[in-house]
Amino acid sequence: MKLFRFALLSLGTLVVSASGTLATTYHVSTSGSDSGTGSQSQPWRTLQHAVDTIAPGDTIIVEPGSYAGCRIGRSGTASAVCTLKAASPGSVVINSLAPTNRHGSLIEVENFDVTVRYWVIDGFELAGGTRSGVDLRDTDFITIQNCIVHNSGRTGIFMAFCYHPLIQNNESYSNGEHGIYQSNSGDFPIIRANNLHDNAAAGLHMNGDRNFTPGDGIISFAVVEKNIIWENGRLGGSGINCDGVSDSVIRNNLLYGNHASGISLYAIDAAEGSSRNRVYNNTIVMPADGRWCINISASSEGQPDPAGNDVRNNILFTPHAFRGSISTYGPAVSGFQSDYNVVVGRFSTDGGGSSMPLSAWQGFGFDTHSIIATPDQLFNNPGAGDYSLRPGSPAIDAGVSLPGDVRDDIVGATRPQGRGYDIGCYEAAGGAIGPLADFSAGPLTGQAPLTVQFADLSTGGATGWTWDFGDGATSAERNPSHTYLIAGSFAITLTVSNSAGQSTKLRPGYIMVAAPPSAPVADFTASPLGGIAPLRVQFTDLSSGAPTSWAWDFGDGATSAERNPSHTYLSAGSFTVGLTVAGAAGQSGRVRGNYIVVTPPAARDFFCAMLSVDAGKRLAGDHGSVHASDDSFLLLKATRLDGDKFGDAVTYVFETGLGSLSSLSFTSESRSSKARQRQQMFLFNASSGEWDLVDTRTLTTTDETTVSVQVPAPSAYISTAGQVRLRIRTGDTRSAKWKHSIDLLKITAAP
């Protein structure tokens, strides 16, 4: 029994693993030999021999000194994890390659045939790797912790197709590219509490890279938290660079002095733009030459653009004159949320091509509750790299509660310490609690001038009040009243304070003031403005001020109370149109002089439709014989009229089809066989029922005589059926018989 125990102890220290199997602790020393047992008294010499020898659950302790690297190709198990650990953190320096290294990296974890699983690599300094300090490829559940990695040719800690890696409490600096690089579609990475600084490119770069298989080209379900990342990106690359990182949380990180962007969500190589990420409680302070604090870019090669990202409780400051807090690729990024941040007043919706103030950004529905503050207002000593919150910082208690994702801060302090979550990666220590602002007011709506009474509802013992009424007026009273003189929508802000701090409550658009009513102002238009009678005109009301009644005067004696009437002008003329409108606050009128101009219609000729011989004897012809100057005529023989005088009388009927007359004339051509005959012309007055004498003359020749008569005031001489009746009486001056020839008789009329 004693011999058996001695043999076991000579191989190393035995412990029982989580699986219940015996686990051994081995040692490696610069004074050891790979032909030894690996015990503390007989340590091995090389890391490569150690990692090739141990079984699942075993631990390798590396004593202080400088060593060549190694390549790990065997696995532990979930209950029997393999460990490669420095005897004390930083006491072991790995600064040269082992013959087994294939990628120029100091510690490589890879097996071309199988996935390597369940290792912990703990506490080493890895200096000057040709490619990387630590290089993981096709792994699962590998932990890298408490290591210092620097001056690598490319990346400090590199991963490709690595699932469930835990990278925590490491320092990676002065590397040729990135501090940490998670590449290809490895899911569930945890990148926690690392110090990443002075790397030429990104502090942390994650790239799903759809161009390499197997995998979906997306890194999913990452946790990136409590890292301090500074002075990276002089050759480009954000503090935290996410090329196809989705459904992940980025929280409680401190980024300052990074010379590209702070956090970037995008897709260049990945299968989709970084989407559905929760970016919570980070502090990002950019240098003067930096880019945007948060940059959400459109995908570059046709992949889906980033969508559904949620940005809350972050401090986002840059002193740059143009760049600002958040840049997106458009004003309507799908599912994008941003609020309860401390910001500078510059934002972009065109990929950083232009910037807009906070008020314009809020117009898209973003950062409604966010505030603007400077580092000196926020932090204890930003010049010395102390970004913890100073007493009275406006970030204290100003965030939104996020208990499902953020329960503590960057140093493990429980959130919240006060009345609410602090904004940024630090939660200020609890103590005396400042007041919490709240208020009400009434009335909230009305017409100017509107007097509103404000009531302070703040809790926590406020001793000071500052009101901003949104129209330029302020008050320091606790319960002030204020009169709004102009119309508008007014945001109300109350800031309350006491010795323990202050709090601000903003209610956007809280008071709505309408303009007082005013009398309507009459105006109108019409179409057409001119034409031939009868002219139908459409009138259109253009009055402002909400009139409720309308009174039109069309200038020809007609009126209307309709809002948009039509009216027909029957006669020619120039007409002045007036409109009077009235409303609750009064009335006004508008007159347009000579607005409608109606011209008379063109006159046209009408020929008689019938005739009757009232005196005399018809010898030849009928009504058709007098339609034209030709060889056809109406021939009459005079008969005795009164006493012994001879003559004739004929009534001519004209069917015009007109409803009115604006002008009327008639023309006759006739001759008599005996000269000096008196001729009288009568028109039938449709209104009086009488025959009116409209012309009388003496015919002095037996030659053909043309008579034209213009009738004044012709409107009475047309019947409702459009008929005009003309009677011509010729003779009564001679006692001898004579003959009378009528060649033409017509009227010329216009409505």
Count of DSSP-assigned helices = 4
Strand content: 35-45%
Structural class: mainly beta
- List segments where confidence is low: pLDDT < 50 over at least 5 consecutive residues: 1-11
How would you portray this structure in words?
- The chain is mainly beta and 751 residues long.
- Among the domains are: 439-514, Sandwich (Immunoglobulin-like), CATH 2.60.40; 524-599, Immunoglobulin-like (Sandwich), CATH 2.60.40; 604-750, Jelly Rolls (Sandwich).
- It is 3% helix and 45% strand.
- The strands form ten sheets. It has a 23-stranded mixed sheet that branches. The chain has a twelve-stranded parallel sheet with strand order 4-7-10-12-15-18-22-26-29-32-35-37, with no helix packed on it.
Please give a quick description of this structure.
The protein is mainly β. The chain is 3% helix and 45% strand.
Set down the secondary structure blueprint.
Elements: H1 2-11, E1 13-16, E2 22-28, H2 47-53, E3 59-62, E4 65-68, E5 70-72, E6 82-86, E7 92-96, E8 107-109, E9 116-122, E10 124-127, E11 132-145, E12 148-150, E13 155-163, E14 166-168, E15 171-173, E16 180-183, E17 190-192, E18 195-197, E19 204-207, E20 219-220, E21 223-225, E22 228-230, E23 240-243, E24 245-246, E25 249-251, E26 254-256, E27 263-266, E28 278-280, E29 283-285, E30 294-296, E31 310-312, E32 315-317, E33 326-327, E34 337-339, E35 342-343, E36 347-348, H3 358-362, E37 371-372, H4 375-378, E38 379-381, E39 386-389, E40 439-442, E41 445-447, E42 450-456, E43 464-468, E44 474-475, E45 481-484, E46 488-498, E47 501-514, E48 524-527, E49 530-532, E50 535-541, E51 549-553, E52 559-560, E53 566-569, E54 573-583, E55 586-599, E56 604-607, E57 610-615, E58 617-620, E59 634-637, E60 639-640, E61 646-655, E62 663-672, E63 677-684, E64 691-699, E65 705-710, E66 723-734, E67 739-750
Parallel strand pairs: 2-3, 3-6, 4-7, 5-8, 6-9, 7-10, 8-11, 9-11, 10-12, 11-13, 11-14, 12-15, 13-16, 14-17, 15-18, 16-19, 17-21, 18-22, 19-23, 20-24, 21-25, 22-26, 23-27, 25-28, 26-29, 27-30, 28-31, 29-32, 30-33, 31-34, 32-35, 33-36, 35-37, 41-47, 49-55
Antiparallel strand pairs: 1-2, 38-39, 40-42, 42-45, 43-44, 43-46, 46-47, 48-50, 50-53, 51-52, 51-54, 54-55, 56-67, 57-61, 58-59, 59-67, 60-61, 61-66, 62-65, 62-67, 63-64, 63-66
